[in-house]
Fold this protein.
Amino acid sequence: MLSKNQKKLIAAMAQKKQRDVHGLFLAEGDKIVRDLLAAGMTPQLLVATDTWLLPANLVAEHFPMVITSRDELEKVSLQKTPQNVLGLFPQHKHHLKNSAIKNNLTLLLDGVQDPGNLGTIIRLADWFGIGDIVCSTDTADLYNPKVIQSSMGAIARVRVHYTNLSGFIEIYKKETGNPVYGTFLKGDNVYQAKLLNQGLLIMGNEGQGIRDEIGSMVTNRITIPSYPANEPTSESLNVGVATAILCSEFRRQASL
Amino acid sequence: MLSKNQKKLIAAMAQKKQRDVHGLFLAEGDKIVRDLLAAGMTPQLLVATDTWLLPANLVAEHFPMVITSRDELEKVSLQKTPQNVLGLFPQHKHHLKNSAIKNNLTLLLDGVQDPGNLGTIIRLADWFGIGDIVCSTDTADLYNPKVIQSSMGAIARVRVHYTNLSGFIEIYKKETGNPVYGTFLKGDNVYQAKLLNQGLLIMGNEGQGIRDEIGSMVTNRITIPSYPANEPTSESLNVGVATAILCSEFRRQASL
């Protein structure tokens, strides 16, 4: 059974302030918990029903684990459809060095607000071998439960950083000389542009796009053309969808 | 002020059964309502605060409209962050003829469950000039408020149909001779495959993919390769993201 304090701690994970005070985050579901364990993350607490199958190679690790009833697990879960395991894991700050990222494509998020969009972007970054995502400080919080759930375990492999974007870009450009791609409604047709797989790719806020201050630092403005050209259509693409199309096109060109 | 019956009718739109009984759906927010009006849809009821700006060319249309307080609009809204207008619109059944779709790319959804994913797919179909989406009967309901909101008005331009998929595909193949593309975790690399922009593109359920019965009717199995090849990564891409990448690649090849 869970203690009163354990229940309170799990419930507290719904709030960023509480997550930061405790330095923890909540991950729910077999797939995500397994991915985090496999990545070497040590939970502060695992809560599972007796139907959960612990990977055998992890049995020796001896992390604190509470076996509980399905009913109790459902009560503490923050998800609509609770699964048979959840874990409290320590937050992790990653160091970001230009020397380490200069030979790969790195994503920059300028004020992406929706946690679902951030989770989607982390998951697709994982698919496309993008190791680092650098976020403005007003981007959605990595440890928001919605981000964790929609990233589907990709946070075990993709490093997400929060920093002052303009300061970061300035130093990155000076130290690497790499291009800085920015996505706009008007820019070079992404299918015709020559895309280098060493550089930054900046995606903007859902409603406002990339801030002017950040936009002015972009060296290559690119756009995803609608089809057929010049017909009435949606005003824009969802930022997760746009990021997916761009990453796909960068990697397609890299594979030629 | 809204009558009690009007309030009840709006609240009923949260449930599929009630939506179908009344033949109506709820759209909230200036952008979506404008898009639906611009597409020639006549609302059964519009509810707006006095801050809403009605497009001048529509003033003459005389549809039933209630001006209400922000407070009352917030009370009847199904959204977390209500806007200054909502509308009840009639559901619309579109006819689907193979002769009308055989020269374009048509999307097929085999059991896509998440309303947000369906809305995302409708929005990106609009961007990529896909006029018709054919859904299995167990796909999320087009008129679910989450679908309407995440489609961002694209439902004014994209026709969404529900039918028995295997029956549809069988007749489509016979009548058009076009290819039937299906997306799988194993298939031809989509960047190297020759993609024709006349045909069907089938996307599967979030967890299970395409059903075997439907999969057996596919003529071209395609896949989005992860990058770099053969490194540990996420097991799959979100279905909205995968659809976006594939539609982008179909249209890129069409533009060559």
Q: What stands out?
A: The mean pLDDT of chain B is 94. The longest helix of chain B spans residues 239-254. Chain B touches chain A at residues 31, 116, 120, 123-124, 126-129, 150, 152-154, 157, 191, 224-228, 231-235, 237-238, 240-242, 244-245, 248-249, 251-252, 254-255 (CB under 8 Å).
